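Weekly sync, protein design subgroup
Attendees: M.S., D.O., the rotation student, P.L. (late)

Item 1: inverse folding check
M.S. brought a backbone from last month's batch and wanted to see whether the design step gives back something sensible before we order anything. D.O. pointed out we never logged the input encoding, so this time it goes straight into the notes. Structure tokens as presented (379 positions):
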């Protein structure tokens, strides 16, 4: 008999692709476009010659998937980190120990075809690594963030939208997004046309410890009346960590250059489509009640704090869930169906609960029940 996972993957591959407009088979990668531009590049013929790849980090969330994908494609991988996180991973991979903030000695005198940097957060960190590696590697892939943009009001939110807080001097920039802007610039100044930058949204999938997507698969699988914030038409974007990792190796194999938004899925997705899509992988009786953003804010419940995953599409966040990823899609980015991502994330989370009695953060059942009661009483 078919297992639950078999059913999820088959149903997701068919229904998910049709409903969400996903192109191609799950996880497929294609050749980079030969068009020049901010997000395009010439593709190396054949595209799969073995490479020597250095990964700064490599044992967190995104890193292990990049390592596995690179190894499955026949590439030689070296990882560099402090040797403190998931040290049991990849005993067959060369591991260099150091600290990107103060001790890069293990990297001196070495050469690689490409560097993948998932762990850099500010200009000082990036300056140390790129100064050392700019003459020792052919290409530098830096994982940035959707948060680099000044706001999300442009009619087309592509890679050319304005960056950083323009209303204050750069010397006064603080915070995750502004720091990533400055870090991007350091890479570009050092590597020039050899620069490769990605700007992911929320990264989800098995192994994600942020709980932002896992909250939804866990809560919906729990059944009952589920509170959903905002409006059923609110746009939602995310990327499966495995799709991101496959895209990274595809970009490096084809010597792709430029900057890429990596927001999925390929077709627009609403919050209603998200939650009903997740419901399709569970057997729990469940219903959904949407609660207005302002009503929630009056009770101290704000987007991202603690309400995970999307923003109300208004004001500075008008097109936050409508980012344009056409350049990345043209360069080979493909998206797993929602059913596959949700089902496999739920399986991973359930195993995590069994092993450690893990408790999700974010909105508790008590808060949810109280707010739903007040919403209904308000009429």
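Designed sequence read out in the meeting:
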């Amino acid at each position: 008999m078919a297992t639950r996972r078999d059913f999820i993957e088959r149903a997701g591959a068919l229904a998910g692709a049709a409903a969400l407009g996903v192109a191609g088979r799950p996880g497929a990668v294609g050749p980079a476009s030969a068009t020049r531009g901010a997000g395009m590049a010439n593709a190396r013929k054949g595209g799969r010659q073995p490479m020597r790849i250095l990964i700064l980090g490599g044992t967190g969330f995104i890193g292990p998937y990049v390592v596995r994908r690179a190894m499955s494609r026949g590439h030689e991988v070296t990882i560099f980190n402090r040797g403190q996180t998931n040290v049991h991973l990849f005993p067959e991979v060369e591991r260099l120990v150091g600290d990107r903030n103060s001790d890069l000695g293990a990297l001196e005198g070495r050469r690689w075809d490409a560097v993948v940097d998932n762990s850099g957060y500010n200009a000082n960190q990036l300056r140390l690594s790129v100064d050392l590696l700019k003459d020792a590697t052919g290409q530098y892939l830096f994982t940035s963030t959707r948060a680099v943009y000044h706001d999300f009001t442009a009619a087309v939110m592509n890679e050319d939208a304005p960056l950083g807080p323009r209303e204050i001097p750069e010397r006064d920039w603080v915070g995750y997004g502004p720091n990533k802007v400055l870090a991007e610039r350091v890479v570009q100044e050092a590597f020039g046309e050899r620069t490769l930058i990605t700007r992911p949204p929320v990264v989800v999938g098995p192994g994600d410890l942020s709980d932002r997507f896992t909250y939804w698969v866990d809560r919906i699988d729990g059944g009952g009346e589920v509170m959903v914030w905002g409006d059923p038409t609110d746009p939602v974007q995310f990327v499966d960590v495995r799709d991101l990792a496959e895209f990274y190796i595809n970009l490096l194999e084809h010597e792709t250059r430029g900057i890429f938004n990596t927001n999925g899925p390929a077709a627009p997705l609403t919050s209603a489509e998200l939650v009903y899509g997740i419901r399709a992988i569970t057997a729990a009786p469940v219903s959904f009640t949407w609660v207005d953003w302002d009503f929630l804010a009056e009770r101290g419940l704000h987007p991202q704090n603690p309400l995970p995953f999307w923003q109300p599409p208004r004001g500075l966040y008008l097109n936050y869930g409508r980012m344009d990823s056409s350049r990345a899609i043209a360069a080979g980015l493909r998206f797993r169906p929602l059913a596959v991502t949700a089902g496999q994330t739920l399986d991973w989370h359930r195993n995590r609960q069994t092993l450690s009695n893990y408790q999700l953060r974010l909105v508790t059942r008590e808060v949810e029940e109280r707010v739903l009661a007040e919403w209904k009483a308000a009429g």
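Discussion: The mean pLDDT is 88. The longest helix spans residues 338-356.
Action: P.L. to compare against the previous round before Friday.
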